[in-house]
Amino acid sequence: MNWAAISFDWNHIRAFLASVEEGSLSAAARALGQSQPTLSRQIAALEAELGLVLFERVGRRLAPTPAALDLVAHVRAMGEAAGRISLTAAGRSEAVEGTVSVTASDSFSAYLLPGILGRLREVAPGITVDVVAANDIRDLQRREADIAVRHVRPEQPELVARLIRSSGAGLYAAPAYLAARGRPETVEALAGHDFVGFQPVDRFVELMNGFGVPVAQDRIRVVTDSGIVAWEMARAGLAIGVQAREVAALFPEMAPLLPEFEPIPVPIWLTCHRELHTSRRIRLVYDVLADALTELSRSDR
Predict the structure, then answer these.
(1) Nearest to 224 by CA among 203, 248, 197
(2) What is the rounded CA–CA span in Å between residue 173 and residue 171?
(3) What are phi and psi of 157, to 5 degrees?
(4) Tens-place pLDDT, residues 8-45
(5) Residue 110 belongs to what H/E stretch?
(6) CA angle, 21 then 140 then 75, to 5°
(7) The CATH number fitting domain 167-265, selected from 3.40.50.720, 3.40.50.1970, 3.40.50.300, 3.40.190.10
(8) Do domains 98-164+266-299 and 167-265 have the same CATH topology?
(9) pLDDT digits (tens, 9 = 90+) for 157-190
(10) Which of 57, 62, 80, 141 shows the smallest number of beta carbons within 10 Å?
(11) What one-character DSSP code corresponds to residue 262?
């Protein structure tokens, strides 16, 4: 390798790649945990090192120049290689301490994860858990999280996925809602009731109808992309809510509707990167999560 030809700093390359992928300097600075002036200096330093102009102002935003776009594929390959190095090193770590990031839906993170983390603290007090409460699917390959609790099976071959359980969700209403609107006694009667829905609404209606729940779009009275907000709206009596049974069990005041109705299936997959699965601390957190989720499946029957 011609070491003399490599005249740039990896940190500057990382700043450049983040700026391109995040779409702005401010977003890239947030993603890297830096200030925007620091990021701007790193990009300016890279431009000086390479003798190229990488960004130009277009209106009120910065856009990558043709020279920058020529470099992106090579720089992205460097970023992926750096990520693989971090994954491999983390996977070989033998210390049962340090930080492990876990991503799960906001509802799972708020209502179920605290009890599980209490158990983890008893067996591994040296582990800090970074909880990424997000309803989108985080990218484990790019180390946005170490472990993910998901409701769909990941397709990437680099990921280790285990189906922990098949849970179920039901329909629930607050006493205030039932007092005002009455309790639906049949599935057909649900068509005249209000629901809390999720974004996108048309997809939510399609899914509910596919599971046999007659929800019309004009009966969606509250819409949100947050599971916590949706549940709190239902608890406030604004409309009927959909919730996993193990979460609903924490709120005995919420009345289950049509208990004979077949629960909406909610598979729970526990996923991590294949390399990280060999890390003692990540494997420990993974196993604690698996055991706790398995026990939940027994308790909500």
Answers:
(1) 197
(2) 7
(3) -65, -20
(4) 677 888 888 888 888 888 888 888 888 888 888 998 88
(5) helix 106-111
(6) 35
(7) 3.40.190.10
(8) yes
(9) 777 888 888 888 999 999 999 999 999 999 999 9
(10) 57
(11) P
